């Protein structure tokens, strides 16, 4: 929406409102102005915005554009709910030349819509044993083209109180419950527990229940790590399991094998990953692995709700490979009903961003059903029968010359059959 407003010299030293409509479901408002003097003389227009009830920000003459979202905003502007109704761009007529000026106001309202977002769910900062600040981690993730991150410092939530609102990264509150016999991430709650200390299985369960009651998702972290694997009860009340922690290694392979066994036994467990980044060194990098989520909105809640659906896959880097697994209208994380027409069709796996030599596997509860090696294709499509299977999932394996090994490059969550 572009609105052109002529401001006369008689309107100097006032606040001019340029109204615009915000519809329900708006995710982001972006405003930009261009000012042109209609003749000689000083011309200074200040900038701000109001919603239907209050002023939501002011930057004076310091800016010519700003954005407002539910969780983030340009400095000087207040993030929060984008209430439907009449809003107005505020133009402060600080200096107006005798012949007036023309202000071109461009308002862009972006509506919530499903899209793939990518990021990192496990990272540390100077608030525990990490070497980088919150802002430094967010900046690096933005440079990688990622959308979200959770900074999960050990047994503290102080990092959640310092999240920069002006960053372009969606910041998910997090904390890693760190005990001598296993770690778990609490994601989505700024202050998940009052006291992290737990030295028994019962106390661990109590901390988990407290975090859940405060709105956190529970992630079982690196459960087969030889140094800090999960030694508490496996019946722990968790939402998701971190099957890929940092660079691919034997501990991750053990968790992948265990997760597959759980799926074959009939359990439906959502798999996620995280870099567990503390500092630069070796092959540990931000967003290695990358968690991809199909989310309804580019917000912390949108990411968390998206993971809950199971439409999630992991890749070794933000560049992919990327995976899409579906049967008609049903996608990874969904359950295809026994009577659905799609049951007469095929499961379809589409893989993009492949390299020569990559091996793609389509796997069910019966084992590897389809295998294909990329020769020159950047994309592949694999098909498989549904009848008699309880789930399908996908893997991509790649040879990495840096370590002279074939390692996991991507893995999907399952598409289930009822």
UniProtKB/TrEMBL annotation:
SMART domains: POLIIIAc
PANTHER family: EXONUCLEASE, POLYMERASE_HISTIDINOL PHOSPHATASE N-TERMINAL DOMAIN-CONTAINING PROTEIN
Domain annotation Polymerase/histidinol phosphatase N-terminal: ranges: 119-181
Domain of life, source organism: Bacteria
Stated name of the protein: Polymerase/histidinol phosphatase N-terminal domain-containing protein
InterPro entries the UniProt entry points to: PHP_domain (IPR052018), Pol/His_phosphatase_N (IPR003141), Pol/histidinol_Pase-like (IPR016195)
Provenance organism: Paenibacillus qinlingensis
């Amino acid at each position: 929406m572009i609105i052109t407003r002529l401001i006369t010299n008689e309107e100097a030293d006032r606040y001019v409102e340029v109204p615009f409509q915000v519809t329900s479901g708006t995710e982001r408002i972006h405003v930009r102005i261009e000012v042109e003097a209609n003749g000689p003389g000083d011309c200074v227009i200040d900038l701000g915005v109001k919603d239907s009830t209050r002023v939501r920000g002011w930057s004076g003459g310091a800016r010519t554009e700003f954005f407002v979202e539910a969780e983030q905003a340009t400095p000087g502007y207040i993030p929060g709910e984008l209430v439907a109704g009449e809003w107005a761009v505020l133009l402060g007529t600080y200096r107006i030349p005798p012949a007036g000026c023309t202000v071109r106001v461009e308002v862009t309202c972006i509506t919530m819509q499903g899209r793939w977002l990518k990021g990192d769910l496990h990272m540390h900062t100077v608030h525990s044993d990490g070497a980088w600040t919150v802002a430094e981690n967010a900046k690096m993730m933005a440079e990688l083209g990622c959308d979200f991150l959770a900074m999960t410092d050990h047994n503290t939530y102080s990092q959640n109180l310092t999240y920069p609102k002006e960053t372009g990264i969606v910041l998910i509150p997090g904390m890693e419950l760190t005990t001598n016999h296993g770690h778990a991430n609490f994601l989505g709650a700024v202050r998940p527990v009052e006291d992290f200390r737990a030295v028994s299985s019962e106390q661990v369960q109590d901390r988990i229940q407290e975090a859940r009651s405060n709105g956190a998702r529970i992630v079982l972290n690196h459960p087969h790590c030889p140094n800090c694997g999960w030694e508490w009860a496996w019946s722990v009340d968790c939402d998701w399991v971190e099957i890929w922690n940092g660079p691919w290694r034997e501990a991750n392979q053990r968790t992948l094998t265990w997760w597959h066994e759980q799926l074959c036994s009939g359990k439906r467990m959502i798999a996620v990953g995280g870099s567990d980044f503390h500092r630069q060194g070796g092959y540990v990098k931000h967003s290695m692995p990358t968690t991809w989520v199909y989310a309804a909105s580019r917000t912390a809640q949108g990411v968390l709700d998206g993971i809950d659906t199971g439409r999630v896959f992991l890749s070794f880097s933000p560049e992919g490979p990327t995976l899409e697994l579906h049967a008609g209208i049903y996608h990874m994380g969904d359950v295809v009903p026994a009577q659905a027409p799609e049951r007469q069709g095929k499961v379809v796996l589409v893989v993009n961003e492949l390299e020569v030599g990559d091996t793609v596997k389509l796997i069910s509860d019966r084992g590897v059903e389809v295998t294909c090696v990329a020769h020159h294709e950047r994309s592949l499509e694999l098909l498989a029968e549904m009848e008699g299977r309880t789930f399908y999932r996908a893997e991509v394996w790649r040879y990495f010359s840096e370590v002279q090994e074939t390692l996991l490059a991507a893995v999907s969550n399952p598409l289930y059959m009822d």
